[in-house]
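pipeline stage [seq->struct] | target=thioredoxin-dependent peroxiredoxin | organism=Dictyobacter formicarum | residues=157
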Amino acid sequence: MASSTGMKVQVGDRAPDFTLSTQDGKQVSLKDYHGQKAVVLYFYPKDDTPGCTAEACAFRDSYEVFKDAGAEVLGVSSDSVAAHQKFSTKYRLPFILLSDKDGAVRKRYGAVSAFGLIPGRVTYIIDKDGIVRHVFSSQLAAERHIDEALKTLHSAR
């Protein structure tokens, strides 16, 4: 089981709850979705960088498919609320971006640095009951996160 000692959240674990600020400055908790819909929780390194922009735009372009599959997409990085607002507006992102300023949620999930420098790019598929059903980690294959998430959601139906 994942804990604050740095163990990674694994498939079958209960996803650790958290409350973070959205790009609109509202507070969102993972538990807000329990019993309502699945969550695609993706951690990414930084707003408005080439790989992260490609990943966010791929999530944007498939957002209706995620909604049809009964899931909400939540993107998480350590960028500020203001940076998220700018990034979201610039690329017309229809989903929520969450500001994990101190990286505490990233650490709780174990979505830590790749190569010891860059924050990790990790996607968690969490079912309606709050259980992690899939974890995909790839720093370089940003768009594969969307394919992996959709494959997991569709196989769960």
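stage status: PASS
auto-comment: The longest helix spans residues 50-61. Residues 135 and 144 are 12 Å apart (CA to CA).
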